[in-house]
């Protein structure tokens, strides 16, 4: 931490410095040369005069209450009296510094959310098909993710994943997945590669996922699930929805992950839809009842996510147009 050399005479300066042996003394003229994220301690009058951007604790005389208030309005983190430092001031400094860093992290969250959304796949023109998506984090950052990309002129690969938990760690894993496609050509291969990397890194998170490959000419769909709920659903006009249930483990739990691959053909005007479990949250009841309501609204294209959700929501739909 920095201690900015006062420009006025402070009779108690040596006593204060002896109570703070870990600080580095710097001069006002050199402030621009130092790290702007490091906590600084300074005389209140110097702070009011120069108004630098370093996070600062100001020191004042007992009769300078107005100056302390002005410094607080300008952004000072705390105000102390030269002759009345807190007991164990270094401990106080560490707490103030930690709180400052937490606040800075919170201020960065909107920018981080914007950057995360920039990693979502761009709209894509496909022969015979339309991709429809919904992405709604419960807070700034999401642990749910989807992606899709062409692996040939007539095939598209896709997945939807749900990272356990919430917050920055879960969202970082979605970014990791967005950056990792490898050379996978099948759903099984993609899931096995992601699982291997997750187990190797020993991250205490697991990921559920549905991944698939769709042939845009033959309409053949090959897909695999890694412990994902709710299951994928196929909707066709005037037909009962097909619930594609599977039994499998999520990614990140075991090296010996068994991945089964399934096949089906999408008929005309069929919709293949996968959702994260956050899509169940808007509905009341137990898990089965929530799922029934979700299926009803997806079938009738009436699903609407609330403005404020308790869990992240991601939905990916592949609609055959003819």
The count of strands amounts to 15
Beta-strand percentage range: 25-35%
Strand order of the largest sheet: 2-1-3-4-5
Distance from N terminus to C terminus (CA atoms, Å) equals 66 Å
Question: Regions with pLDDT < 50 over 5+ consecutive residues?
Answer: none
CATH architecture of the largest domain: 4-Layer Sandwich
Number of H- or I-type helical stretches: 7
Describe the protein's architecture and organization.
- This protein has helices at residues 13-19, 44-50, 65-74, 89-118, 168-179, 187-201, 287-299; strands at 2-4, 24-26, 40-43, 56-60, 78-81, 129-136, 144-152, 155-163, 207-215, 220-226, 232-235, 242-244, 262-265, 271-275, 313-320.
- The chain is an alpha/beta fold and 322 residues long.
- It folds into two domains: 2-113, Rossmann fold (3-Layer(aba) Sandwich); 119-320, 4-Layer Sandwich (Phosphatase 2c, domain 1).
- The strands form three sheets. The protein has a five-stranded parallel β-sheet. It has a five-stranded antiparallel β-sheet with strand order 6-15-14-11-12, with no helix packed on it.
- Helix 2 packs across helix 3 (65-74).
- It is elongated and about 85 Å long.
């Amino acid at each position: 931490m920095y201690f900015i050399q006062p420009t006025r005479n402070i009779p108690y300066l040596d006593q204060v410095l002896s109570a703070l042996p870990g600080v580095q003394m710097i001069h006002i003229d050199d402030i621009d040369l130092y790290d702007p994220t490091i906590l600084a301690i300074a005389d209140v009058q110097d702070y009011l005069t120069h108004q630098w951007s370093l996070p600062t604790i100001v020191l004042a005389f007992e009769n300078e209450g107005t100056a302390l208030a002005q410094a607080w309005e300008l952004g000072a983190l705390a105000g102390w009296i030269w002759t009345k430092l807190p007991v164990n001031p270094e401990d106080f400094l560490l707490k103030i510094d930690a709180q400052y860093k937490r606040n800075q992290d919170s201020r960065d969250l909107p920018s981080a959310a914007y950057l995360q959304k920039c990693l979502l796949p761009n709209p894509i023109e496909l022969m015979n098909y339309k991709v429809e998506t919904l992405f709604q984090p419960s807070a700034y950052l999401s642990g749910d993710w989807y992606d899709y990309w062409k692996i040939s002129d007539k095939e598209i690969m896709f997945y939807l994943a749900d990272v356990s938990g919430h917050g920055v760690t879960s969202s970082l894993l979605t970014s990791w997945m967005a950056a990792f496609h490898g050379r996978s050509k099948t759903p099984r291969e993609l899931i096995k590669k992601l699982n291997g990397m997750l187990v190797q890194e020993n991250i205490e998170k697991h990921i559920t996922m549905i991944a698939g490959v769709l042939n845009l000419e033959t309409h053949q769909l090959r897909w695999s699930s890694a412990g994902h709920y709710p299951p994928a659903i196929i909707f066709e006009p005037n037909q009962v929805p097909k619930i594609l249930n599977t039994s499998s483990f999520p990614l990140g739990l075991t090296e010996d992950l068994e991945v089964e691959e399934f096949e089906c053909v999408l008929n005309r005007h069929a919709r293949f839809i996968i959702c994260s479990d956050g899509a169940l949250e808007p509905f009341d009841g137990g898990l089965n009842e929530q799922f029934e309501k979700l299926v009803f609204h997806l079938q009738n294209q009436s699903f609407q996510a609330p403005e404020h959700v308790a869990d992240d929501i991601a939905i990916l739909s592949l609609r055959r147009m003819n």
